Input
Amino acid sequence: MIPRFQRVAFWAMLVVAVIMAIVLIRMRERAHDRLITAANSLPLSAPSSAPVEKITLLVANDLDGSLIPVERSFPMPKDPNARARVLMQKLLEEYAAPKSTHPIANASGVDEVFLMPVSQQKDGQGLMAVVNLNSAFVQAQPSGIEPETLTVLSMIATLHADLPQITEVRFLVDGQQKDTLAGHADLTRVYLASDTETAVRE
Output
């Protein structure tokens, strides 16, 4: 027969374990809410006080499978992370515009772009861009190996054109690794900026 004090100790530990589990779950929810709030508080575009600059977008053309350099002038932030995000936003606005050469009906498909050093780079100057797409953009992306590949390559080429120190790019969807963009383009790999060279129209 189990002594009374052991039964009391068991139930006390069980109650403490349940309370700790509830507290941990709540703390995780609060941390998640803070991350979402921080991401949403970041500006989607450059502040109006930022200087207007000429930038080059590498826009996909479905007619011949090429990337066309298109010059635009916008206020651009100096911070590289914010700059990369604005570049992606402006590129997707081109795709959502009427008569787009690569139509995608979602102009706000990039939640964030993170830049980090590439450790294998000999000069230590290379950066990897981690582009976090949202699921709404993925759903709007036309499925097929060519349109998906052009979307990916145009993002990489646009980032590298304005920020040459970006030599590698990875893609996430809603903060998670996804196998493909819309069934074809591989999102599990690291793309190199050099992968876009053959697609760029001179």
Summary: The chain is about 40% helix and 20% strand. Strands lie at 52-61, 66-75, 110-117, 127-133, 166-173, 191-192.
